[in-house]
């Protein structure tokens, strides 16, 4: 049995073999850059107007209108003192433009432009290079590409980016009692839900489960299922059959497939029988079957590792401390990840903390960490991992 800290360190210390690929801008959301990106040119690349209005030369209250520039116009108007041109948002400001005035603040009489007040030098002009200078570092290697990141990369004219490949994830659920939702359920059976929750949790953070298998509690079936899944997977996630019961065959089946244990059992609640192993450059997480245990272990251990394998600068769920909204006593002798809800900047530990209970996780939005046999008072800060 290892501590939470030790388990996380064992995972973090794995040497991983990152592969790269080129992806089109439209297909790189959530991927991590395998190279820095620097600005190929100044941004903006020319001085331009921030408003629909008039570009002005000199500081006056009256100007002569001598022309027009629209966004995308290439024409160069040489403005002289006291002259103005009609201009639109994003259009290149003529040379010698002192300021731009928005059209709501002027009146036009023939070719005469009258201002309510004198303009301030430089107003409403977006300067060349004010956001980025040519050659400036825009994103560092490892940056996880966000929608705004895609926007910026596109605006730099970059069509394809080199990113780290994401892992192929395969899932195996085990258990004789499991039947698929939608099928008639006999006494003693339960609906299989972990594979859906785990696949959804992967998708939620930009990872994808390629293959899903459900296998009964039969040693040979589990052993051959693992063998087959490992052929295509970079990361194999199993659920169930990892505890000490007579029908818990997963650990032995992994061993017989040449998977080397990195740790088995973590001193925590939920998720004590968590297993982590490796075979060559493939990794295996065997999560406890209890629905809340498997998902909690996914968030705390699998997700950081998926990020690590994808070259990301992220290392798991965001962690923040929040004041707890009520007194709470953790009676468990194990440090606990408790299903919690953050609202109005306060954390509430929800009812229904059993490892088999997933409703509290579904209604909550965080896992609150409270040490074993620890009491906290209303207002004390507790560490929370934000699920959403
Ligand atoms: N004698 C002991 N018994 C148990 C121990 C222990 O230390 N000694 N540990 C308990 C803890 S803690 C956990 S957690 C569970 C984990 O057991 P397994 O990983 O072997 O999981 P299963 O026994 O297969 O299933 C547990 C529970 O979860 C339900 N389940 C399983 N798979 C799914 C699924 N895909 N979808 C929905 N629900 C699932 C299953 O029906 C069981 O109710 O072991 C304790 N026992
Ligand atoms: O390790 Mo278990 O998840 O407490 O029931």
Automatic annotation (TrEMBL):
Its cofactor is Mg(2+). It catalyses: adenylyl-molybdopterin + molybdate = Mo-molybdopterin + AMP + H(+). Pfam families: MoCF_biosynth, MoeA_C, MoeA_N. PROSITE patterns: MOCF_BIOSYNTHESIS_2 (PS01079). GO terms for cellular component: cytosol. One of its GO terms (biological process) is Mo-molybdopterin cofactor biosynthetic process. The keyword Endoplasmic reticulum does not apply. Transmembrane segments: none annotated. Keywords: Magnesium, Metal-binding, Molybdenum, Molybdenum cofactor biosynthesis, Transferase. Catalyzes the insertion of molybdate into adenylated molybdopterin with the concomitant release of AMP. This is Molybdopterin molybdenumtransferase. It comes from Christiangramia sabulilitoris.
């Amino acid at each position: 049995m290892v501590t939470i800290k030790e388990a996380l360190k064992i995972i973090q210390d794995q040497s991983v073999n990152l592969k790269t690929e080129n992806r089109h801008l439209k297909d790189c959301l959530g991927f991590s850059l395998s190279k820095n990106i620097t600005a190929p040119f100044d941004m903006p690349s020319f001085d331009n107007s921030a408003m629909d209005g008039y570009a002005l030369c000199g500081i006056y209250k009256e100007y002569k209108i001598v022309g027009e520039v629209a966004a995308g116009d290439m024409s160069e108007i040489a403005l002289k003192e006291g002259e103005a041109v009609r201009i639109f948002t994003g259009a290149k400001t003529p040379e010698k433009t002192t300021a731009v005035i928005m059209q709501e603040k002027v009146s036009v009489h023939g070719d005469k432009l009258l201002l309510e007040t004198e303009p301030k030098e430089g107003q409403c002009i977006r300067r060349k290079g004010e956001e980025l200078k040519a050659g400036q570092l825009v994103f560092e290697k490892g940056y996880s590409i966000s929608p705004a990141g895609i926007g910026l990369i596109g605006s730099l004219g970059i069509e394809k980016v080199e990113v780290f490949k994401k892992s192929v994830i395969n899932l195996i659920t085990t258990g004789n009692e499991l039947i698929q939702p939608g099928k008639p359920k006999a006494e003693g059976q339960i609906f299989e839900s972990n594979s859906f929750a785990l696949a959804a949790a992967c998708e939620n953070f930009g990872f994808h489960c390629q293959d899903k298998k459900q296998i009964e509690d039969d040693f040979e079936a589990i052993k051959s299922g693992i063998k087959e899944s490992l052929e295509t997977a970079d990361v194999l996630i199993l659920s169930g059959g990892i505890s000490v019961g007579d029908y818990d065959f997963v650990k032995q089946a992994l061993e017989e497939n040449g998977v080397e244990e990195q740790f088995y059992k973590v001193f925590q609640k939920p998720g004590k029988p968590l297993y982590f192993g490796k075979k060559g450059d493939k990794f295996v997480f065997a999560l406890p079957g209890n629905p809340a245990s498997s998902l909690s272990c996914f968030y705390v251990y699998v997700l950081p590792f998926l990020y690590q394998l994808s070259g990301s600068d992220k290392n798991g769920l965001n962690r923040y401390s929040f004041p707890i909204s009520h007194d709470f006593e953790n009676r468990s002798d194990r440090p606990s990840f408790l299903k919690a809800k953050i609202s109005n900047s306060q954390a509430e530990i929800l009812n229904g903390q059993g490892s088999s209970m997933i409703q509290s996780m579904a209604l909550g939005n965080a896992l609150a960490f409270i040490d074993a046999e620890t009491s906290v008072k209303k207002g004390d800060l507790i560490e929370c991992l934000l699920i959403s």
